[in-house]
Every structure is written in C-alpha cells, then in structure tokens.
User: Fold this.
Amino acid sequence: MFGLIGKKVGMTQVFNDFGELVPVTVIKVEPNLVVEQRTPDRNGYSAIVLGACEIKPARMSKPRLGQFEKHGIDAKRYLVEIRDFDKECAIGDSLGVELFTDTGFVDITGTSKGKGFQGVMKRHNFSGGNKSHGSKFHRAGGSTGMAAWPSKVHKGTKMAGRMGGVQRTVQNLRVVGVDQERQMLLVGGAVPGTNEGYIVVKTSKKKG
Assistant:
C-alpha cells in the first residue's frame, strides 16, 4: 500500500476510451515530504509519515515543529501516517502523483461537508407524515422513548442533530488519468469534502 496527501480541486467530466462522458474529481497533489519513518524494531510496525502544505513555523506548537527541525525539513501543515508503504523512500524525499501511474483503483479519505443541525427527514431519510391540512405531523421525528419500561430513549435512536463534518472514506474509485506535469490526479466519481479541502489518497484495499 502507498498513498499521498492531496487537495480536492473540484469536479469536471472527461470522455473515456469508449466515447462515454465520465464525471471525475480533480485532485491536486502538492509535494509530499517524508517526515518520519516507523520501523518494526523501534515502533513495532512499518510506516512513513508524510507532510504537505507549507506553514509558518510560528503557527505551530514546539513539539510538532520539532518533528521537522530534527531532520532539517520545512514545516508542513498536514501530517499523515501511512502503514506498510510499498515504495522505497528516505526522510526528506519528495513524492508526487507519479506514484499512481500504474494504479487502477484508490481509496480516498476526507472530511465530509458540514450540513449543520438537520431534521430526521434530511439526516436519516425519514418519509415524514401526511402533508394534508390538520395532520399536525409533517416533518417531525415521531415517538422516540418508551413508557413505564424501560422509560428512556435507547442509544443510537435516529433523531435530529448535527449532520456532516465527519471523516469518511470512499473505496474503489477508478483512476481515470494522471497528469505528472501539473501534478493532477483524475478519479472517477465524487470524493468527500469541500473544494480546496485536503484529502488522503491511498491504493485500494479491495481492488488492484
């Protein structure tokens, strides 16, 4: 497995080899620096830590800044640990989108768009009640608790609440194109997060 930190640019559409119009998400891959390496002898597992997006050192805490200073690397805003990294690399190396040249499918992790406080119809796809005059039950959630026993609301009951703004992973997205000159990756379908938001692109666990 291997992966990179990227930035979601937005969506567009391209023609495939069969002349079909395919919706794709454009991902900009800025230089990913190898900040740290985890080894089985010292850490008990194998992994590397990637950093992306420059940031002023004054805006970072001293413990986090020390990870970069001890290796003489420029400070980065985002840090991601990727286990069992297949590619040979060393601390200080810069990785780009060329890693995905021969990759067919990827898994993408990002923070979904925040929707704020929403009702049960939008949040959980409830059908709602009658819309006729006098029903007094249009978009409400309905009964949630019990009577004499157990006299409480069970945990996990679908109710109104905050929607979105959580980490989500979309699996098995096809790699449509790799533009090494502009460091762009074209992925079939939609990925979580807003435009200009940072995401993590990894090789697919289920497909090659």
